[in-house]
Design brief:
The protein is of the alpha+beta class and 312 residues long. The strands form three sheets. Strands 1, 2, 3, 4, 7 and 8 form a six-stranded antiparallel beta sheet that branches. Strands 9-12-11-10 form a four-stranded antiparallel beta sheet, sandwiched between helices. Strands 5-6 form a two-stranded antiparallel ribbon. It starts with a helix and ends with a helix. 32% of the residues are buried.
């Protein structure tokens, strides 16, 4: 059905008459709509961030539990390991725990800090007496290290031996007759921690990641190809990527506030480590000395507003 010239003229007249009203109305209600969308986005980021913090805390407490249970099974004097049968039996037990719960390495040290039992790596005979994880466990405490470069060449995410691979260790005393007889150490697989951090999805550009007290990312970025192309990292984001605004060279606003402790958000947006404007929510986790960041690109977060602005 063909629309007549008269009908077209009427429609054009109505459109021209209503355009100022529609535009004026949008200018008036836009701040209200934007505020509502901001509130919804922040609540979403906050819910995801707090939930992720809970999941990570539970996951880490499971690692502490694994260490305590395994150490209890090894509660014997180190001299008993000179017996070949006991040595073989205990090594089989450590192998079973390591494979069942996904640890990279499990090793046991004597009171002098010498490794005398090792599963998942040829570390027997190595001296770790000067390490903080050995010293703390020797005092009777269960201890979690910072994420740090490995002191020995260990298997990386590609299955290759590499020195300095980001690693996380949990140590606990092995006791005999109530006294510390040695130290058990679990080397956590950081790729499993990375999966925990990224368990909850946030649209196309949303990501959640951990940051240490020096402002370095501890897990893997969702934008590895992009930040490699920018020259920000060579191999991985964990311990390589310092979370700076590329324009200012300073820590991003979200990370800076996170490292000051507590929780918070920024509804207006700030430049992330890619230089992209994001909305962010941060949550400091004092137990592990980690910050948890939840961010999404502003363009995606406020897509509805931008589309309406474009049409109007």
């Amino acid at each position: 059905m063909t629309i007549s010239i008269r009908s077209k003229a009427i429609l054009l007249f109505i459109g021209l008459a209503l355009a100022p009203l529609i535009l004026t109305t949008w200018i008036i209600i836009r701040p209200t709509v934007l505020a509502a969308i901001q509130q919804a986005r922040i609540q979403n980021l906050e819910g995801i961030g707090d939930r992720q913090a809970e999941l990570i805390t539970v996951w880490m407490h499971e690692r502490l539990h694994d260490a305590a249970v395994t150490a209890a099974m090894l509660s014997m004097h180190p001299s008993e390991l000179t017996d070949q049968f006991n040595h073989t039996k205990l090594l089989y037990y450590l192998d079973t725990v390591r494979k069942e719960y996904g640890y990279k390495t499990i090793f046991v040290c004597d009171k002098d800090g010498r490794i005398w039992l090792s599963s998942g790596g040829d570390l027997k005979g190595q001296d770790v007496s000067g390490s903080d994880y050995f010293q703390q466990a020797l005092k009777g405490s269960t201890f979690i290290t910072e994420v740090r470069p490995s002191e020995f060449p260990i298997e990386n995410e590609l299955g290759e031996k590499e020195p300095g691979v980001p690693t996380l260790l949990v140590s606990t005393p092995v006791k005999a007759k109530g006294e510390v007889a040695g130290v058990l150490v679990l080397r956590v697989d950081l790729m499993l921690l990375n999966k925990e951090v990224r368990r909850v999805k946030m649209g196309k550009t949303g990501e959640t990641y951990l940051v240490n007290s020096d402002g370095y990312m501890l897990t893997e970025s969702a934008f590895i190809p992009a930040i490699k192309a920018m020259g920000l990292i060579k191999k991985r984001s964990a311990l390589e990527l310092r979370l700076k605004d590329p324009q200012t060279g300073k820590l991003t606003k979200g990370v800076k506030h996170c490292l000051e402790g507590g929780s918070g958000f920024n509804p207006e947006g700030y430049a992330d480590y890619r230089g992209v404007q994001v909305l962010g929510y941060w949550h400091w986790m004092p137990e592990f000395r980690w910050g948890l960041m939840s961010e999404i690109d502003v363009v995606e977060a406020y897509e509805v507003i931008y589309r309406l602005d474009h049409y109007l």
